[in-house]
Amino acid sequence: MYNGRTFGPCLAGGHHRVRQPVKKRLRRLLAATPAGPEVPKPAWIIMAKGAQQRHRWVFYYDGDCGFCTRMATGLSRTDLLGRLTWTTYQSLEDPPRGLSWEELDQAAYLDTGRGRLHGGFHAFRMLTLRLLPLMPLAPILWLPGVDRVGTAVYRWIARNRYRISGCRAPGVKPGRRERPGEQS
């Protein structure tokens, strides 16, 4: 009943009588629980982490291109949930399944798992579904016909990316670079 000063037993100071026994029981329970690696993690945490690792997308880009590197670095900063792996294709021993070194040199690729590869504009368009800050662009980029314009713009940028960035990585000559294990 409200008496003008407080409302209910918690605000009247009666909460101490309720809270103390609960605290004591919690302390006893926590003291009896083994600490360290013996404590099994709940199954839903294990499953969530496994699902996140399984469905992690991989973005391949040209690490010798200053423009590509700046774009990948900027986009990786928008990956607030850490759901993508950003990889220069030059760091790979072998090209990803279904791609050649020439294809990787011509466009960025996004591997969404299960053998699904998206290249160029389509890779960027897929990123709008996974990167939170890019999600407002998704409805525009997925409109019918936008892929034709987007693909043309991406091809132009890809052809002129070294002129746009003004440089390649130090010591790298234009053209196809040799991969580990390849001979001229």
TrEMBL record:
InterPro entries: DCC1-like. One of its GO terms (molecular function) is protein-disulfide reductase activity. It holds the Pfam family DCC1-like. This is DUF393 domain-containing protein. It comes from uncultured marine microorganism HF4000_APKG8C21.
